[in-house]
Amino acid sequence: MKLTFRNIHRDIAYFYLGLIIAFAFSGIFLNHRQAWHPRRYKADVREVTVRPVHKDSVSEDYVAAFTHEHNIDDNVRRFAVNNNVLRISYVNHDADIDLTTGNTTIVHYKITPLLGQMTTLHVDTSKWWIYYSDVFGAAMLVIAVTGMFIEKGKNSFRARGWKLALAGIIFPLVFLFLLS
Question: Torsion over CA of 96, 97, 101 and 105, rounded to 10 degrees?
Fold first, then answer.
């Protein structure tokens, strides 16, 4: 097989097709995670009442006791008090406790099938995945560069493609400038 830009472009794109599709979908959904969290969904919501406490009494021991008392079999990620509401974030649960009234909402989340796994790929930082993602990033550069040399004639990169490429570079830079 002859080594050409077209063949390199095609074969790398074929190899990474699944990952390109997964990153495209998960990237779109992650962009909208403020309105809807793509990785997980609410599987159960419980309303309970606990004894009101002063915010100065909130500690790791208090959080551990709450977790045990309400049979939350999950790891605590963080907790914080904001406007007399204690938010305990677990890996698969959230608990919001009104420290004044004791009214509490416990939400149990489950991973969204397929989409949850795709978004995990998009944000995973494990050592082996970082290296694979670096290779993927380099492959995307190869696809971009080889794509510039595939077309010949009036639709070539030299004839008109550079204008679109320049617009594609300027467009996000304008947003970055405006958002700064």
Answer: 50
Whole-model pTM: value is 0.60
What would the pLDDT profile of 139-173 be if each residue is shown by its tens digit? 999 999 998 888 888 988 899 889 999 998 898 89
Place of tokens 């495209």: 24
Angle separating helix axes 17-31 and 115-123, nearest 10 degrees? 90
- Match 């996000």 to its residue by tokens: 172
For residue 65, which amino acid is it?
A
Sign of CA dihedral 78, 113, 119, 15: positive
Q: Measured on CA atoms in the order 65, 70, 72, 73, is the torsion positive or negative? A: positive
Mean per-residue pLDDT over the chain, rounded: 89
Single-letter amino acid, residue 113 = P
Helix axes 127-147, 5-15, angle to 10 degrees: 150
Query: What is the pLDDT averaged over residues 39-46?
Result: 89
